[in-house]
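Observation: inputs received (chain + pyridoxal-5'-phosphate).
Thought: call the complex predictor directly.
Action: predict_structure
Action Input:
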Amino acid sequence: MPTNITSKLSNQKTSIFSVMSSMAKAENAINLSQGFPDFGIDTQLINYLLDGMREGFNQYAPMAGLPELREQIAIKTQLLHGRAYAIDNEITVVPGATLGIFAVISTVVHQGDEVILFDPAYDSYQPSIEMNGGIPVHIPLTFPNFSIDWNRVQAAISKKTKLIIINSPHNPSGATLSPADLLALRQIVADTDIMILSDEVYEHIIFDGKHHHSLAGDKWLSERTFITASFGKTYHTTGWKMGYVLAPKKMTQALRNVYQFMAFSAHTPTQYAFAKMLQDESSYRDLGAFYQKKRDLFQSLMEASRFDILPSHGSYFQLLGFSRISDESDIDFAERLTREFKVASIPISAFYQDHTDHRVLRFCFAKKDETLTKAAAILCKI
Ligand SMILES: Cc1ncc(COP(=O)(O)O)c(C=O)c1O
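Observation:
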């Protein structure tokens, strides 16, 4: 047995999402921690998947993805954001957005390159940068609005800045970027070679009549942007691990150059199923209203509690402050909530690189109404 096994991420602990989900299971707690639905999926999608298998879509798909699926992604993006991504060389289907993010970072980040990211951040960004020899430059979002302080971004730009990672609607805060944000971003990257990774996995989950300002809809920014998207979030199928990356031709060529040696291609019958599903526009257009009802239900139930309800404009996450309840750290309080009260959440500090003492927990409301009602009844007694 070799004794010198040192991973490139030897300081990295097991992801908090796995930790909290296993604790929820062990404690038989209601799991509002990890971001996945506890309800069933559209049976039509299952039928399409079976059709795909029966009709012989069982061997390697083309590396870039089934043409049928890329075509539907192109149609949807054009319809919603007015940009026509070319099926042949600007759309790449990948097994999940996490892998898409890793592939993008592996493609463009070389040893010593700096990558700007905003805390709190989805947990895969930092290790993906590190594994590729990049230097993460963390900028905190303002609290409690979770907006970007563009002056800080400007100040953080250096000759080594290669990539800026943005995420809207945002996990964990549910904040969304506005046209003014995109304008500020534009001004900062103008006259530079800085690229953008825009993580838009919650693109269809946006509330209160707000519009998702995809970078696909900004002609100038889209010319230097990789967009990552996830069918797992849109079709309640996080376990199917399927997403895609949109980017201009040259950037896509570079991406595929790397991606071909990661997964080569994604699960073929699943691609067939999503291609069929996307033909029905309502399958993604109605998602915001669907989750808005759940957000409203959870928020209205929580009004009777001692938690502070932070705004959630998109995604399927609700932040709740507990400073009126306890002085404990968010990690201690989240663990106690799971053990004693049997409701699991994620402490917000898990999304920060540096220490933070916000007393805030993230709850996922992609759950059956009865699950949310049960959890809220417990939380209201604390
Ligand atoms: C912001 C963000 N990006 C990417 C992902 C990963 O998506 P996928 O499940 O398709 O890998 C998630 C999942 O939680 C997420 O919240």
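Thought: report the result.
Final Answer: Residues 35, 96-98, 122, 167, 171, 199, 201, 230, 232, 238, 243 surround pyridoxal-5'-phosphate (CB under 6 Å). Residues 16-41+285-379 form a domain with the Aspartate Aminotransferase, domain 1 fold (CATH 3.90.1150.10).
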